[in-house]
Amino acid sequence: MNSRFTGLFFLGLTLTTGNISAQNTSADIKKMEWFQDAKLGIFIHWGIYSVDGISESWSFFNNYINHENYMKQLNGFSASQYTPDAWVKLIKNSGAKYSVITTRHHDGVSLWNSKADKAISIPQNALAKKDVLTPFVVALKQSGLRTGLYYSLPDWSHPYYDINTRTKKRYDLKNDTAKWQNYIRYYQTQLNELSTQYQPDLIWFDGDWEHSSEEWQASETLKNLRKFNSEVIINSRLNNHGDYETPEQGIPVISPQSKYWELCYTMNDSWGFQPFDHHYKTPNMLIRTLADVISMGGNLLLDIGPKADGTIPDEQVKILQSLGRWTSKYPEAIYGTRRGLPFENYKGKSSMSKDGKKLFLYLEEAKDFAKIYGLDSIPTTARILGDSKGKVQFTSDHNGNLTLHFLNTSFDQDVTVVELSFDKELMLKPSIKKDKPTLKTLTEYPDTRSAVYEIAEQLHEGNSIFTNSGLTQDGMDMKIPETSKTNKETLSWISKHAEALFETEKGLPDGHYSGVSTLSKDQQTLYLFVEGIPTGPVALKGIKNGISRIRIVGEGSMINHSVYNKLYWSDRPGIIYIDVPKERLDKKMTVIAVLLDKPVELYREKVGAVESNL
User: Fold this and answer.
1) List of domains in the chain
2) Is-above-0.85 flag for pTM?
């Protein structure tokens, strides 16, 4: 019996959690379609915190600066060079299909001229003395982009709100319900203003962790918002009374359970403008992150933080322009796609067209071939998108396993896309069956690259093909039997990389590394098998361990790594990027040894909102 690709395998991944409301009714599917198709949005954190370049709201909440001095930034917020049309043009050219702007963060400063009781706003209280939200929304709508409005449920500056800072409360909600009801009216008034004045396509809540659903009156809030627009999309941060999940900063290792989800992510380590934060991810890292998110069926909401004068930092402009280069080259492989193949079928990133008749492979390296397993049908055509001279030849076996060969290909500097077309919706076989050549057969393969890939994959799956083979731990004095057909080049590669092959164990499960791997017997050294020529640093996700050192197997070079999006107060690991010098790559397959501080510990939990920004 065959399994429908979009049905059986992903059945468990379309389940929802909490009260997330967007399900599979025809009305919900229609409402969510533009969002699911969009893939890329741009988040904008802009407020008075950009004046001194300090953490938005959290800086006074955590008592790094007192509230009075924080609010003095109102006197420096000029927006003097603010050009909303230019912002929107930059966003649209990046390939984004929607944008979400902070209408009011936790500090309580509204970008529009709010008439709510005791509201603080840019038009009334800041140096700018003008509404900076309206012209941006107008420009968004004129451009055809969808409008998203971020709104913080808590307002730590408002006299009716119970919490002021981490160590200071204004009152106990249970003892002063009247004051709390005044706050409810305040924030409901602001939501009504945003709904009537701007008709948003999406409302992005934040800060729900400070109170219960009942205290926020979340159900009533949701009903009220949908009176203004029955098709408005709400994120899950209204105590899960919304339509989609919002993992924050940490790229999910495994796909979120919700059918609809969006990763909100910074370019550096800050949401708002901070002049001393130069820890920017490269365009290559962010384009690969976008491909990763698309392959798991989600959207990337990438953040920018404009300065107080309304200009966007050069580093952020360049990143958006680089995204635009890639998205404009591969639009058919981005927009309207759905999550891709399981890791067991393809050791890489991929996506499917909406009708299931096209499969897109995202290649993060220049290489000769790729393998896909367990397809119920073979492609009618295969091509390299954006490369008229490149050719893809493919063969398949009786188990539905496909080998693609890339010829005369001009690989993209970041991510190359291969398109496979089928004459009907792609389906997967219920189980994967592979021929598992013996070591003798593999050493007789005429093509060394094919042989070492097969060796690496069998070891990754736990098939110890070197048991009693004559392989030694250091590759010296090997006694692997030879015949007249033995490929000496393959034996040389085995000898060079023996430590990653000798008595090693099954590799990492899906999601941690976009390739095959093995683990040392003591589980403390992770071996990553790197195909071809990577376009950027090798990426690792969900590794809880500290890293002692990283080296290239068989030639001793120590290499550098960096960690991004590691929150120091959280046990959630960051993403590890390993720099592999191109001049040290093995022509057949490179192996990297990652020495951990203790036996490997993996993070595979759900990634949620950051609820405590210390």
Assistant:
1) 38-333 (3.20.20.80), 343-421 (2.60.40), 439-596 (2.60.40.1180)
2) yes
